[in-house]
Amino acid sequence: MKKKDFLDLSLDVSEIKNHEEYRKIWQRLGKIEIKMVEKHEECKHNVGDTFLYENPYKRPKDVCEALLHVLDLYVWRAALGFPSWNSENRKVFKLHCPDPKGTVWEMKKIEE
Would residue 9 count as lying in a domain? Predict the structure, then answer.
């Protein structure tokens, strides 16, 4: 593999000496956006609905619990910059709610 093919989180944990330094690294994780892009059956959400995770531990409010269960499997991947399997855009995860005919959502890290 070429060097550019490796995932590098650039986290030097040896530099963490206090809570303030820890918080700086934590804030680098950024926010995660989820957005409904397809709707195939009944759902309380609509295409275009968008929600934010303030951080991987702080789930957005008013999102279906079943969907959150699926999103929980991927939120850390997005936060840490792991590439998705989506060949159109490796920074965007396309995820389906648990309902077989339900909704499709995009999850991505917000680059600030």
Answer: no
Asked if residues 72 and 63 have their Cβ atoms less than 8 Å apart, the reply is no
Q: Which residue has the higher pLDDT, 63 or 21?
A: 63
Tell me if 59 sits within 8 A of 74, measured CB to CB: no
Task: Check: pTM over 0.70? Answer yes or no.
Answer: yes
Say if 68 falls within a structural domain: yes
Give the model confidence (pLDDT) of 91-100 as tens digits: 999 999 999 8
What is the domain extent for residue 54? 30-109
In a domain, 62, yes or no: yes
Does the pLDDT at position 12 exceed 80?
no
Query: Which residue in the block uniquely carries the two structure tokens 């077989």?
Result: 100
Q: How many domains does the chain have?
A: 1
Q: Which of 111, 90, 109 lies closest to 34 in space, CA to CA? A: 109
